[in-house]
Each structure stands twice: as structure tokens, then as C-alpha cells.
Specification:
Elements (H helix, E strand, L loop, with lengths): L2 H5 L14 E7 L5 H17 L3 E7 L13 E4 L10 H9 L8 H8 L1 H10 L7 E4 L7 H4 L4 E5 L9 E3 L2 H15 L2 E5 L3 E9 L2 E9 L7 H5 L5 E3 L6 H17 L5 E9 L5 E7 L9 H8 L4 H14 L2
Parallel strand pairs: 1-2, 1-3
Antiparallel strand pairs: 4-7, 5-6, 5-7, 8-9, 8-11, 9-10, 11-12
Helix pairs in contact: 2-11, 3-4
């Protein structure tokens, strides 16, 4: 199948392997999500090999871009977090004229910066919890400005690394100081008591809503990647109107950042008002056995190999 034919494919038809492509899979990287990224990369590498593509996987770093010298028709990015998901790698690929999976450099940068993403959400009419960005100069008096419980997290990071639910003024100040010391800034966010939901986006379609239930305080790194008892419910007992609203607003959040091809959108559903509050958009969600976009795609009848193929096709079409 030619690139022109790929561009003309309808999303509701099952994908067929394009003419065998030379594909570079990029994984690993320098951030705290490195091990998860390597798992994602291995899964994608295996799927693309089964589809008949010629595939090589590389563990790439900002100070070693030799992987990009390999002649390739396409680059599949499986890098989570720093360097791979913040627009840096995408800008480098754009400069080299290489076609790649997922969102472009600017959308990736916006999504990685949770405060910048929230500004875009608000402009698009997508509700997000009240928040404040705190640096060393703004730590003083934080507990007077922000009620507890509150969520403290890095402004630009993923997989809930260094995220805390602070349930007292002292815990809030301590958590914010620790994040500021490590990252330079902290995002302090209103705590929404309710149900944790996530929606995968594929092309211009919101996949089924998934409710996440964990025995931990919230869906943190351990619950995401290490626990076997985290529950992923694709038939949550919620009114159809609420589920449709969450899907519609998830797609709006994806579009508000200029994302393309695929993403995962996370929100909290207020237990009292049933109002969804959107937290972030993940432009390179995981491709591991625990990962939610592959699980959501499977609910739509799209298996893992087909999902990887669709991502290639959509990326070639510039969707």
C-alpha cells in the first residue's frame, strides 16, 4: 500500500499492513520513566515485527542521537517523560525531516507543562482543578492560600512521579518544598474527591471511558506499573450522559493542546456534583501490559498490533 493509499484509509476499517517500512523505535531516555519506556519500546518493536516491518529499537539519550542516523521511513516514539514527551525529540525529528508517531513539538511541550495545559483547557471551556505554580519565592504562606487536602506534583513530569496528596498544612508545605527543591517549581492543585477516569484518544475519536480503582491513595507509579490488583473498569456504573460528556471533553482537551494521532486524557469526576475536572493529556501514553490506551483500543476491537499500525497510518496522514 502506498502512502497515498494510507492517507485515504477510513478509520472504521481494520488496518492492513502497509508496504514493509524501515522503522526506528525509540525508547529508554534519561527520565525517571526510563524502565517503563523500555518496556513500551520492546512491546512496540515486537508488534511491528509481527506486522512485517523492518524494525530496530534504540535506547536514545539527548547526548547521543546516533539512532537518528539510521535510514528509516518512520520513527515510532515510545519515550515517556523527559526528552521524549516534552517536544525536544519531536523538534529534532522535524529538523531532520523524519516522520514520526504522535503529536508535534509544540503540542508535546504544552501537554508536558501541566500549568500551560491547564491554561489551554480553561480557554477551551474544559474544567480543571484550581491550581497554583509555586517556586522558592512563593512557598511562604502557601498553606494560607491553599486549603488541604491538596495535590502537589512537578509541573513537568509523568507517571505520577513525586506526586503527593497533602492532607495537612504542614504536609502541603513540606511536599511543595521538596518538589521545588528537586524541580525548581511545583504545581499545587485542588484535590477533587471522586472517581478517577481516563480516556484514550485515537485519531479523532474518544475511546471508551475507563475508571481506575486502586488500593493506594491515588493512581501513583506503583499502582500504574507494579501492582497487580489495580482495577480498570470499562463499564463504570455512571449515567450514559456523564460518560458521553467525559468523552466529549476529553477530545476537547486533546484538541485544545493541538495534539494529533493519539493520547490519553486523565480526569477526576467529583463525587458530589458529577462534574469532570481534567488533569492532563499524555501525548505518549504507555504501551505495556498495564497500559490503558491499548486496553481501551481492545474494547473497540483493535488489538495491540492493529493499534500500532493505526498509529503509523494516522501519523503518515498527519491526523
Amino acid at each position: 500500500m502506498t502512502v497515498a493509499q494510507v492517507r485515504g484509509r477510513r478509520m472504521d476499517k481494520p488496518p492492513m499492513a502497509v508496504e514493509s517500512l524501515d522503522i526506528t523505535v525509540l525508547a529508554g531516555g534519561p527520565g525517571p520513566e526510563r524502565e517503563v519506556s523500555l518496556d513500551s519500546g520492546r512491546a512496540v518493536h515486537a508488534a511491528l515485527g509481527r506486522l512485517g516491518h523492518r524494525v530496530e529499537m534504540y535506547d536514545i539519550h539527548a547526548d547521543d542521537l546516533s539512532a537518528l542516523e539510521r535510514p528509516a521511513d518512520f520513527v515510532f516514539i515510545a519515550l515517556h517523560g523527559e526528552f521524549g514527551e516534552d517536544g525536544t525529540l519531536q523538534a529534532e525529528l522535524d529538523e531532520r525531516g523524519l516522520r514520526y508517531s504522535g503529536s508535534g513539538a509544540e503540542a508535546s511541550r504544552l501537554a508536558m507543562d501541566k500549568a500551560a495545559a491547564k491554561e489551554r483547557f480553561e480557554r477551551a471551556g474544559v474544567a480543571t482543578p484550581r491550581y497554583e505554580v509555586v517556586d522558592s519565592l512563593r512557598l511562604k504562606g502557601l498553606a494560607d492560600r491553599f486549603a488541604t487536602p491538596a495535590v502537589v506534583k512537578p509541573v513537568s513530569s509523568g507517571s505520577s512521579v513525586d506526586t503527593t496528596v497533602a492532607r495537612s498544612a504542614a504536609a502541603l508545605e513540606r511536599a511543595a518544598a521538596e518538589v521545588v527543591q528537586r524541580y525548581g517549581r511545583a504545581l499545587v492543585e485542588e484535590y477533587i474527591a471522586g472517581r478517577e477516569l481516563t480516556v484514550g484518544i485515537l485519531g479523532d475519536e474518544a475511546l471508551p471511558v475507563c475508571e481506575i480503582r486502586t488500593k493506594r491513595e491515588f493512581y501513583n507509579y506503583q499502582a500504574k506499573y507494579l501492582d497487580d490488583d489495580t482495577q480498570y473498569l470499562f463499564d463504570p456504573d455512571l449515567p450514559a450522559g456523564v460518560l458521553e460528556g467525559v468523552q466529549r471533553l476529553s477530545l476537547a482537551a486533546h484538541r485544545a493542546l493541538g495534539c494529533r494521532v493519539f493520547s490519553r486524557v486523565d480526569c477526576m469526576l467529583d463525587a458530589t456534583t458529577m462534574q469532570p475536572y481534567f488533569l492532563e493529556v499524555n501525548t505518549i501514553p504507555g504501551f505495556t501490559s498495564h497500559s490503558l490506551v491499548p486496553k481501551a483500543a481492545a474494547r473497540r476491537g483493535i488489538n495491540f498490533d492493529e493499534l500500532c499500525q493505526r498509529i503509523i497510518e494516522l501519523s503518515l496522514r498527519g491526523c
